[in-house]
Amino acid sequence: MTSQTCSLFVLSIIMVYFGSFGNSLILANLQNDIYDLKADFNASLSDVADGGPIFTEKLKNWTERNEKRIILSQIVSMYLEMLENADKSKAHVRRISEELFTLKRSLPDGLKKLKDLMDLTKLQMSDLKIQRKAVNELFSVLQTLVETPTSFKRKRSQSQRRCNC
Ligand SMILES: *[C@@H]1O[C@H](CO)[C@@H](O)[C@H](O)[C@H]1NC(C)=O
Ligand SMILES: *[C@@H]1O[C@H](CO)[C@@H](O)[C@H](O)[C@H]1NC(C)=O
Question: Do 62 and 83 share a domain, yes or no?
């Protein structure tokens, strides 16, 4: 219940992030609904501040729009899961849930992206066959980097920094 309360505390801030690419009119309408939801979840209890925020701090380092949409997709799913057990007979709960569902449909599947990353960590890079595959794909991978100018620039400045040492 504590983590739920804590999540609610930052829901409105999350909504502000959506405001940059969602409908800010809907956002304004949701403010009162979120206010009611906070009351439902006792989101003003003093323990909300314990240990700091659970979502907003993490969001800070996800600066690029597409990156942010991945983590937001995951966070929205978590809110939806939390609201599944909330009282749907309350209008504000229904409106917030519906809005989150709509937002989720407009976002990439964060969980799928997360699975891609987890799959990569499982690859045995000491395996000779994996190494052959990797070398075989190296040029294509680098080509993909060149096609996304911002990440390429960042990678390049990182390696430059390494050279200076
Ligand atoms: C909120 O607080 C009230 C009063 O202490 C309590 O009865 C209720 O169960 C609490 N609700 C939640 C969701 O924690
Ligand atoms: C986020 O970025 C800041 C500044 O680059 C850094 O100090 C901080 O450790 C980062 N936080 C996380 C959770 O990675």
Answer: yes
